[in-house]
Amino acid sequence: MSSRRPVASSPPSAGARGLRDVLGLATGVPFSFFRKRAVNPDSTLTAPPPQHSDDDYSSTVDKLLKILEEPEDELLEEMNDLARKLSKTYGSVTVRVPSTDTVTRRFVIESAMNAMRSANSDAPPNDIVRVVLSATTFFFEEPAAVNTIEPRAFAGWLNLTTIGLRQCTNLHTIGHNAFARLEKLADVTFPASLQSIGSGAFYRCTMIKSFDLSHCSQLKSIGNSVFSGCSALASVILPASLESLGVLVFRKCSSLEHVDLSALTELKTIDFQAFEACARLASVELPPKLETIRSGAFEGCTSLQKVDFSACESVRLEDRAFEGCTSLENVDLSKIKALQIGDHVFRDCDKLKLTVSKFQRNQCKDHRDRAVDPEEYKYDRMGMPDTATLTIVSEGAPNATVKYL
Q: What is the pLDDT of residue 161?
């Protein structure tokens, strides 16, 4: 093996392969050494035994942070492949996170590094890579001290299976992408103190089957794309305190079958593409104070059969809100007192049976407050196909209004 080169002190060049840079340049050991040794579960991953300074470790941490900040799919796949091989050699790895109020990405990586140095004072910087890639469990020494998990704090730990936050009784904020792309994560618990979950916090955690937030009585906000791409997610329970659900929040949750929002008394908006392409979603119960369903909110939910508007009094249905819901059958809008309708709301809903009141049908206005011919109520305005049916009932609020956007 060639003699060890000095530790690289400058950041990786734009053309450098991130993982190769950490495993090779930062330690002076060829990348092929790690790949070859990691394949054999009977081998031990070692490097030449020079002394390493704190600067050496700091340099390695900097490079890891850069790699994992915005990893490309190709690099993630390479990291995942190496992690699988390393786990065969070393088994499961648990990292203890020391007491802190704010959990940052650097703090977590340095905790893993310090764990290795405590176990072996001569551990070379490359061993931190093994910990980062192979860790299966993280736990906090003083969970009650934690109040914030910073953006991307745990994103990229490809073998991480469990996150227990229930004992973090003062945790109020989970930052954006904090646990994104943890493709082996199967179990998450939350504390009652939680107030907000940042955008993409659990993006593409493809093994999680359920999220129970019912006891999080202080939770007000769930950001954009928080659960997007969680393809195994079949059940989610949200707290009554929730006021905001972000854009794309459940997009492509292809195992989600039922959504009950009826207890969310403060939720007024279902945002853009919030449930788009939830292929198994069959029924939705809407909140009583709902005011707006944004464009494409349920677009492409091909199994959706029932949407319950019975608790709603004033609703704005924006363009293409239910476009492509080819199984949608029963939608009763007759009890809504003030209804606003955008273009192509029910486009391609071939099986739709829409119910409205005679008051709504006879009191339609366009966006300029001009009267609309009742005969146009169905086809020209809402994009309903010829195969859909419209039922007009005598019940309903006498002063009900309909306005086309």
A: 86
Q: Which two tokens stand for residue 14?
A: 């734009």
Distance CA 357, CA 3 (A): 84
**Distance in angstroms (rounded) separating the CA atoms of residues 62 and 56:** 10
Here the tokens at position 302 are 């091909």
Residue 54 domain flag: yes
Whether residue 381 lies inside any domain: the answer is: yes
pLDDT at 155: 83
Backbone angles phi, psi at 387, to 5 degrees: -75, -15
Question: How many Cβ atoms from other residues are within 10 Å of residue 317's Cβ?
Answer: 23
Q: Which residues pair with 357 in a beta bridge?
A: 393
Which domain-ending residue is among 89, 115, 145?
A: 89
Confidence (pLDDT) at 95: 73
User: Which pLDDT score is estimated for 371?
Assistant: 63
In angstroms, the first-to-last Cα distance of the chain is 72
**C-alpha distances in Å from residue 9, one per residue of 2, 20, 56, 59, 68:** 20, 15, 8, 6, 18
pLDDT digits (tens, 9 = 90+) for 336-354: 988 888 888 998 998 988 8
pTM of the model: 0.78
CA atoms within 13 A on the CB side of 207: 15
Residue 360: which H helix or E strand, with range?
helix 358-362
What are the residues whose beta carbons fall under 8 Å from the beta carbon of 175, sequence distance 6 or more?
148, 149, 150, 151, 152, 153, 198, 201
Main-chain dihedrals φ then ψ at residue 330, nearest 5 degrees: -110, 115
User: For 4-145, where are the alpha helices, taking DSSP H only?
Assistant: 18-20, 31-39, 54-69, 73-90, 105-119, 126-134
Range of the domain at 402: 257-405
Q: What is the CATH number of the domain that holds 328?
A: 3.80.10.10
Determine the Cα–Cα distance for residues 131 and 160; give it in Å rounded to an integer. Answer: 11
As a dihedral over the C-alpha atoms of residue 13, residue 16, residue 18, residue 23, rounded to 10 degrees, the angle is -110
Alpha-carbon separation of residue 90 from 16, 115, 204 (angstroms): 28, 15, 26
Mean pLDDT of 118-126: 54
